[in-house]
Write a structure and sequence with these properties.
about 25% strand, binds iron/sulfur cluster, elongated, alpha+beta, 3 helices
Length: about 80
């Protein structure tokens, strides 16, 4: 298992305002804006392509605290 298989993100639809900053920031095109609408009336982002490398760029780019959580597991030997 390599690091690409071990990293992923979760997006909280309730906190997302659909700004798409994370979509632009992701170097692996993992994130898309879906067609569903949250309770604030925004089309929210979703983790759509599981090629995440755990870089954290989406997390650091997102203006909404807590909307994105990045999960990375330690590599073998760390
Ligand atoms: S951690 Fe990096 S690769 Fe993973 S979804 Fe966020 S920006 Fe994309
Ligand atoms: S950057 Fe944050 S608020 Fe903007 S679309 Fe992505 S998860 Fe939603």
């Amino acid at each position: 298992m390599d690091s690409q298989e071990k990293s992923y993100i979760e997006i909280d639809p309730a906190r997302c305002k659909g700004c798409a900053c994370c979509v632009v920031a992701c170097p692996k095109d993992c994130i898309q804006i879906g067609s569903e609408i949250n309770q604030m009336g925004y089309q929210f982002a979703r983790f759509a392509v599981r090629q995440c490398i755990g870089c954290g760029l989406c997390f650091y780019t997102c203006p909404e605290f807590g909307a994105i959580t990045v999960y990375t597991l330690p590599r073998k030997g760390e």
